Amino acid sequence: MEIKKSPKASLENGKSLGLLMGAAVGLAVLFVGFEWGTREMKVVTASEGAADVIAEEEIEITRQENTPPPPPPPAPVVSEVLNVVDDNVNLEQQDILSSEDDQSSAQTQTYVAPVVVEEEEESEHQIFTVVEKMPEFPGGQAALLKFLATSIKYPVIAQENGIQGRVVVAFVVNKDGSVVDAEVVRGVDPSLDKEALRVIGIMPKWSPGEQRGKPVRVKYTVPVQFRLQ
């Protein structure tokens, strides 16, 4: 019996159409899969600052390599080996002599005394104002005041005009005690100043002033008082 097959029931007619539709569905599913895939993204705004972005970056961790320790210092070089002996062992006494200990050279040396520099003598014209021992009137300060009171002759013109006061006179006491170079340092009236200089000029010799045990010239100042009774 011959089998007859209907052309409508043949599967070869729809084979190419099925392949096209399957390929189209596969491409559509693949495209949708790419579009719906999730991706983690982070948007950094300017307000967050660059510091936050740097903090999120991974920091590379580095490890310090183990450096070998430095070599030990060389052992000290011993120049001499000291032999330790007992206290009861007698050792030979060795004297260490140097050129400074040479007694022969010391005996030949001649002692030279240091040179004494004599102080320069004070100039004859040098005048001191303060010395170790000041000049002194014969009998002291009280005798000086008495001499002035008894020697002064009050000028008549000054008495008539009622002039009085204190005249300060400076003078130089020489090495021999004589009084020279009298001058008025502070005057009151020409008549009184002249009388004060006259009295200073007739004074006896003073005890001279001394500096380092030697008499020197000293400048001295004396006030002469003029007072009306």
What does this structure look like?
By secondary structure, the chain is an alpha+beta fold. Helices cover 28% and strands 15% of the residues. Strand 4 (209-211) and strand 5 (214-226) form a beta hairpin. It contains six helices and five strands, in the order H-H-H-E-H-H-E-E-H-E-E. The chain has a domain at 140-226: Fusion Protein Consisting Of Minor Coat Protein, Glycine Rich Linker, Tola, And A His Tag, Chain: A, Domain 2 (2-Layer Sandwich), CATH 3.30.1150. Mean pLDDT is 75; it is low at 43-50. Strands 1, 2, 3, 4 and 5 form a five-stranded mixed sheet that branches.
Précis, in short:
With 229 residues, the chain is α+β, with helices and mostly antiparallel strands.
For the record, give the distance between the C-alpha atoms at the N and C termini, rounded to a whole number: 200 Å
Biggest sheet record = 5 strands, mixed
CATH topology (fold) name of the domain at 140-226: Fusion Protein Consisting Of Minor Coat Protein, Glycine Rich Linker, Tola, And A His Tag, Chain: A, Domain 2
H/E series: HHHEHHEEHEE
Could you tell me the radius of gyration in angstroms?
A: 66 Å
The CATH architecture designation of the domain at 140-226 is 2-Layer Sandwich
Helix amount, in percent? 25-40%
Amount of beta strand: 15-25%
Question: Helix segment count?
Answer: 6
Shape: elongated
- Give the class-level CATH name of the domain at 140-226: Alpha Beta
Number of strands: 5
